[in-house]
Amino acid sequence: MKYCVLVLFLSCFCVVASEESSAKLILTKNILNSIITQGNDLAIEYNMYNIGDGVATDVELADSTLHDTDFELISGKMSVKWDRIQPGTNVTHVVVVRPLKSGAQNFTSAVVQYVASEDSEPKFGFSSEIGEVEILSLKEYNRLYAPHVVEWGMFGIWTIPSLLLPYMLYYNSKTKYTVKSKKN
Amino acid sequence: MAPKSSNFSKEEELLLQDFGRDLSRKSSVIFYVHALFVSAIPLWLFNRIHQMEMLDNAILFVIGTIFSAYFVALAYKNNKFELKHKIAQKRSDGVAAELNAKMSETESKKISKKEKDERILWRKNEIAEAESMQLAVFYTNSLFLILLILSSFFFFKSYSPMPNYIISMVGASSITGLLSTSSQK
Fold it and tell me: What is the C-alpha to C-alpha distance for residues B10 and B16, in angstroms, rounded to an integer?
């Protein structure tokens, strides 16, 4: 009798324990660039964290929000698979794209599909949204951030007849008539 | 009390010409050429750095340059008038020394003291006129360009190019002209 009660208790515990052993994935999507410019590479980082107790299997990350008409894929894949993600671990995936158009662009969520526990149905999750981001045109980028060394150098040359020449004429005259008074 | 008639004697006209605000034709031409040139220099910056096309913004550039040139020339005139008196006072000894060195002893004895003083005054005025013009051009141009660069590339950097040009040119030239109207007593 006592033995039956003990077996019954242990089996309940196992059932409870097996129900709690489930994976839970959190996906974040970030832009690594501080300035996003048309025609320049843009790095997008996906971080997947398994905060559950179980192993996540058949993990598939897919981001279909970066259309071919707006972005050119330079490096990485927009659809990636992992066999297993252990509990308490994370994986990172980086994609490099090149924006083809300037203006406001809405970066929405990527999707992850995974199997949380053995014999369970696949689960779906969405990454964090980046939101609307302004993509600068190359012209605007050069206007704001290029050093313009040549342009400032030429500006300095243009100012010679306006600044240096009048001052030199004044200084020569001043020296001539100041020196003479000191001599006397 | 000054006569209301405009018929001044030759001496009075010379005094007005030497010590008045009005400029000779040559001085006016020099000032307007300098003013147009210094007002046109920023076009290079706005074309190459702010990426403003010259043909697309030609009308705006012409109006802005002329507007700015007017106020810069006004500043030249005012600053030159203020500087001339200060410079003339400082050059008295030097000019007198120059003239005395040029005149021989016999020649110096022949001419009267009054004539000698007049020659010194005329020469001093000539030197002060030239120096005050050059210094006024240098000072006004420096002030205008510094104000323009500060407003266009620091204060209003984030503005789009056209408002940036309008505000910077109008602001820099107006402030330059306004500051020239103050007189230090």
Answer: 10
Chain B residue numbers with beta carbons less than 8 Å from the beta carbon of A139 are 51
In angstroms, the CA B52 to CA B60 distance is: 11
* Residue in B34, B45, B130 closest to A173 by CB: B130
B32 within 8 A of B69, measured Cβ to Cβ: yes
A44 three-state secondary structure: strand
CB A54 within 8 A of CB A83: no
**Considering only CA atoms, which of A39, A108, A34 is closest in space to residue A72?**
A39
Closest chain B residue to A164, measured at CA = B138
What whole-number distance in Å separates Cα of residue A98 and Cα of residue A40? 6
pTM of this structure: 0.69
Strands A103-107 and A122-126, sheet pairing: unpaired
pLDDT one-digit tens code per residue, A69-110: 999 999 999 999 999 999 999 999 999 999 999 999 999 999
| Distance of alpha carbon A156 from alpha carbon B137, whole angstroms | 17
**ipTM of the complex in this document:** 0.81
